[in-house]
Amino acid sequence: MTTARFDTLLVANRGEIACRVMRTARRMGLRTVAVYSDADANARHVREADEAVRIGPAAARDSYLNVEAVVEAAQRSGAGAIHPGYGFLSENGAFVQALDAAGIVFVGPPAAAIAAMGDKSAAKARMANAGVPLVPGYHGHDQDDALLRGEADKIGYPVLLKASAGGGGKGMRVVESADGFQAALDGCRRESQAAFGDARMLIEKYLTQPRHVEVQVFCDGHGNGVYLFERDCSVQRRHQKVLEEAPAPGMTAELRREMGEAAVRATQEIGYVGAGTVEFLLDFSQGSSQERDGAFYFMEMNTRLQVEHPVTEMITGQDLVEWQLRVAMGEALPLQQDELTITGHSFEARLYAEDPAQDFLPATGTLTRFAMDLEGASLSSSQEGRAKVRLDSGVESGDVVSMHYDPMLAKLIVHGDDRDQALATLNRALAALDVQGVVTNRAFLQRLATHPAFKAAELDTRFIERHHASLFAAEHPSTEEYASAALIALDQLGRERESDSPWDRHDGFRLNAPHGIRIALCDRQDEASAVVVEGSRESDAAPWCLTIGSETLTASLQPVEGDAVAITLNGHRRRLQARLEGDNSIVMVDPRGESRLLWRRIDAIDHGHHEVESTLTAPMHGTVVALLVEAGQKVEKGMPLMVMEAMKMEHTLTAPADGQVERFHFNAGDTVGQGDVLLEFTPDE
């Protein structure tokens, strides 16, 4: 491994990790260089770097995975070192060898260490030699179908098939019985060959309720090695992590020491240098989540910085990227084992552009707004002054989320004095995130973080699968949520003035009488159950009086900052993110979760502005129920012309003046959009 002082660092990555690495590099006085594909020409990491070099078209294989292009970019920019981030070339031994040949420092382990852990079967053998506990399984070279089937039979079902050269959940399947073994083997081989160019498999005993606990390790070029404690990454979907925390709940000091020392032995076995993560399966006995001993088994080692490294930084107070850069410069580790301590608790939530309701289908589009209400995220009590919120992101408002790369937008990291405080902070911070324009998993993360089993630290790698019904159950809004949504809609109507004239107001203004409006609201998940809210108030300065069924509430709204608002209902004030999406949708987010409601005004909608026009337009999206007059018929002002249905409620459109209906553009049963021209109308002279 080449080590030398350098003053310019190229980050061979993109997105949030590129931004995060450059942040530390700049603080250390280093000049930063970004690389980018055509799809990322205007990306945030490019904007933040001191210099940026194009390395190819959008496809990762032609840009971020192009070793020759990345090395050339480093040479052109005068970079003395390259930080690979994670993913892409971070665990590519050939890339490290190319940098060594070019005299460029690789901020990571030597190629030999990457190779030692890149082949999972060979890595298992070396870990056994180092005395690191292994899950019972088969890690041999013989890949004959019959032999693999026989090994699975000996291990006992269920077993886990894993690609020997793989990672990220690719080429991995659980086999419940001998009957399904061959089909699973064939499928795993296809996936592994396609993803890694290697179809070799290994087999392990599948633990039914294990926890995924990993240990952060660090080694320098002077023979020093330490562990910076552990992270629990059990909450996963399709073998990919969703929520991580440090330290792992339920750990005894003895178990923590045993796992940490085993992880350091693993690094010493392969001559490791730099940051790495040794991943274990932790098999606690059934029972409470109180501290107890458990059996742990080596799973794999990631020879790079992990996505979830910030939770370790939060509890140790150390900057792991700075450690990486100093070790790459040939320095010794900043601290020894007895100097490292744990302070408080930390969580990380990964914010993805994806739709959990559509099996986590990745989403694309333009982020019309990406911001965080930091005041709303912070804890107000002076007793909770150590609570912290950190947002590591690679995007800003106006950025485009493309289809070419991983859909992760940001990582939300929080810290508290203990697990309960950190979890409360996480919920507040998720509610304070304001992301518009692209579908995200934010609401799903809130449901996870507020789930009773997660709050009780009843964790295992099948957490989402076991709690699928409750995590995806439809929860109907409360009366308070309906009232809040109505207040937001009323506020919007109050802003829709075409002039300063009271006759152009759409907020229920009445001369010498209280303002009065009726609004229909419904949950997107159940449009059959619409709720009617009647609102009235004496003046613009007065609070609204809202009636929902038999309940009456006094309500007022105060904008705070961005999309944050303070809503007061019967003297109870709460802060939340609230916005209108489109013409008739309201999104509200607070620490209890996210609500999405459809709304429309159902009292006499003002059609006065149509009196000089020859058309009538649809006031909302809906379906035509009936045409009440004939084309060519003479009508009087206020006479019903047609009936529309929206949100399972009917609305009658009336003649704006005396005149004649010339023709209809839609028939009964047709679907119309808000603003569609419904009919041609000629007013009388």
From TrEMBL:
- Give the top-rank taxon of the lineage listed in the UniProt record for this protein: Bacteria
- The Biotin carboxylation domain sits at 5-469
Q: Identify the SMART domains for this entry.
A: Biotin_carb_C (SM00878)
UniProt keyword annotation of Nucleotide-binding present: yes
Q: Which InterPro entries match?
A: ATP-grasp, BC-like_N, Biotin_carboxylase_complex, Biotin_carboxylation_dom, Biotin_COase_C, Biotin_lipoyl, CPAse_ATP-bd, MCC_alpha_BT
Keyword presence, Ligase: yes
Any Pfam family from its record, for instance, is BT_MCC_alpha
Q: Which segments constitute the Lipoyl-binding domain? A: 609-682
Q: What is this protein called?
A: Acetyl/propionyl/methylcrotonyl-CoA carboxylase subunit alpha
